[in-house]
Specification:
alpha+beta; Aminopeptidase; binds coenzyme A
């Protein structure tokens, strides 16, 4: 069994257009600005975006996340990654690893983009990169993505990246508008057939 605390994880992860890295002390303000800009879209689908947090609360979040990365703590907020545009250095969204079980090891991922940066394939690129990193560096056996069946843009990402649709959890999700919806569960067990992407870390 691996000892996650002693795993050496080289960072950042670099793709042709992006840099992914753990949050650092002082990232609160730029993260907050991206969330404010995207709040309407985030509020619809992200359970953590029920209410807008303050800059101080966001800074608290990034410090907990930075601390988690040091010891690879499998507790909320788990191991998030901030995503930056390589050429402009703008923070364009976030992804990362959550619901980690180091015994297997297996984990889940989730993601959101700054609304102004949707439609360019950037999240597909980020999830491709972090899936590679999860199998190669974190030595996982499974990565899962769960999403609301009505979240077409979100479900397109695992579909584009060749994740297996494992099933539909019927009536297990309360949408922001009060309706009950279904959850799709996608997963990968290796990198077979993942669209090619050059990454370094
Ligand atoms: C989910 C979310 C990240 C998807 O954003 P997105 O911009 O659709 O995803 P990508 O960055 O991968 O871009 C894909 C789009 O870019 C287009 N595109 C352009 N260049 C591309 C490229 N090189 N590669 C892939 N797609 C490309 C695709 O055609 C697609 O557009 P389409 O849906 O109109 O066909 C975004 O809608 C979001 O943040 N939503 C709110 C939070 C959320 O729901 N998170 C998921 C919770 S499970």
């Amino acid at each position: 069994m691996i000892n996650p605390t002693l795993l050496n994880l080289p960072m950042p992860i670099t793709t042709p257009r992006l840099i992914l890295r753990p949050p650092q002390v002082g990232d609160g303000a730029i993260l907050h600005a991206a969330i404010v800009e995207s709040f309407e879209e985030l509020h619809r689908f992200m359970p953590w975006a029920k209410e807008l947090q303050s800059i101080e609360q966001t800074e608290e979040y990034v410090r907990h996340a930075a601390a988690n990365w040091i010891v690879k703590r499998a507790e909320d907020p788990y191991l998030p990654l901030l995503i930056f545009d390589r050429s402009t250095e703008e923070l364009i969204g976030a992804t990362g690893y959550h619901h980690i079980n180091w015994d297997v090891p297996c984990l889940e991922t989730g993601y959101w983009l700054r609304t102004s940066r949707t439609g360019e394939g950037l999240m597909t690129e980020a999830v491709n990169a972090q899936t590679r990193y999860a199998f190669e560096a974190l030595k996982i056996n499974r990565i899962a993505i769960t999403c609301d069946i009505t979240n077409i843009r979100s479900k397109s990402i695992p579909e584009r990246l060749g994740f297996h649709l494992e099933g539909t959890l019927k009536n297990n999700r309360l949408a922001v508008n009060g309706s009950i919806t279904d959850t799709l569960v996608f997963a990968r067990y290796n990198l077979d057939g993942l669209p090619p992407l050059e990454i370094t870390y």
